[in-house]
């Protein structure tokens, strides 16, 4: 998804370096401690947050956790930032950067959960390496996640879902939850589901939403 460039969003992002990190140098360690009130709280990262409906709702609902929205596009980062400022979400930071460098942005074993929501499908096989569930991305998520850390993935794209199941399985990950129709699961599952913008759009057309939760095998084994 390419958003139309919004000059106000670019300006807002540039005015708030305390909330948005832009194009970080992968060689320089990010001082996350100074960016959160209490960095010892659980840390959850969404990769490819888009306009941020999911991550801002999470941050509002769980003030006892810290959240990071990692997003390539400045306009999207500006839209997330606007919500953060309106709702005073002090437990949310935004990174305008490429997830391909995620292992240089965060220390090893530092995050509790990584969310991938409606990631770009990159259907052509020559673009496989760009898919956010390709094995080189999984290796980086494994580095960043704690041993007990979870990867949660949702998509409307059956091809990307099938590919991701295979990719995570080949990587040796364990599945805690798999659904091929998330919106028709039991209420106790739906009660915990937070919709993203894309999810809302596709679910309202009655398209099935695919979801999985998985963990990496312990690194110390
Ligand atoms: C299809 S949109 C989904 C947005 C949102 N997660 C949702 O479900 O509504 C995918 C988003 O991922 C972002 N994205 C794609 N590749 C990325 C990468 N390598 N690093 C960071 N963000 C990425 C895109 O800019 C886009 O905003």
What do you see in this structure?
This protein has 221 residues and is of the alpha/beta class. It has a single domain, classed as Rossmann fold (3-Layer(aba) Sandwich). Helices cover 32% and strands 22% of the residues. The protein is built from eight helices and eight strands, in the order H-E-E-H-E-H-E-H-E-H-E-H-E-H-H-E. The chain has an eight-stranded mixed beta sheet with strand order 1-4-3-2-5-6-8-7, sandwiched between helices. Helix 2 links the parallel strand 2 and strand 3. The longest helix is centred in the middle third of the chain and has 14 residues. The termini are far apart. The model has no long low-confidence stretch (mean pLDDT 96). Bound molecules: S-adenosylmethionine. S-adenosylmethionine binds next to strand 3 and helix 8. InterPro entries: SAM-dependent_MTases_sf, tRNA_(Gua-N-7)_MeTrfase_Trmb, tRNA_methyltr_TrmB_bact. Belongs to the class I-like SAM-binding methyltransferase superfamily. TrmB family. It catalyses: guanosine(46) in tRNA + S-adenosyl-L-methionine = N(7)-methylguanosine(46) in tRNA + S-adenosyl-L-homocysteine. It is an enzyme of class 2 (transferase). One of its GO terms (cellular component) is tRNA methyltransferase complex.
């Amino acid at each position: 998804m390419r958003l139309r460039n919004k000059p106000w969003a670019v300006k807002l992002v540039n005015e708030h370096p305390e909330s948005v990190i832009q194009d970080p140098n992968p060689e320089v360690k990010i001082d996350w401690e100074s960016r959160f009130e209490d960095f010892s709280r659980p840390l959850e990262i969404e990769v490819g947050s888009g306009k941020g409906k999911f991550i801002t709702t999470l941050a509002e609902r769980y003030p006892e956790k810290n959240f990071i929205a990692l997003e390539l596009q400045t306009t999207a980062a500006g839209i997330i930032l606007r919500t953060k400022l309106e709702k005073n979400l002090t437990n949310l930071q935004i990174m305008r950067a490429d997830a391909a460098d995620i292992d240089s942005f965060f220390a090893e074993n530092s995050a509790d959960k990584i969310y991938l929501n409606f990631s770009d499908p990159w259907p052509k096989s020559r673009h496989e390496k760009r898919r956010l569930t390709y094995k080189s991305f999984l290796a980086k998520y494994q580095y960043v996640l704690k041993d007990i850390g979870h990867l949660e993935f949702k998509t409307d794209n059956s091809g990307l879902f099938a590919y991701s199941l295979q990719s995570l399985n080949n990587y040796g990950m364990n599945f805690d939850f798999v659904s091929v129709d998330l919106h028709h699961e039991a209420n106790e599952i739906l009660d915990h589901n937070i919709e993203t913008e894309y999810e809302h759009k596709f679910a309202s057309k009655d398209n099935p939403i695919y979801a999985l939760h998985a963990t990496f095998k312990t690194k110390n084994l």
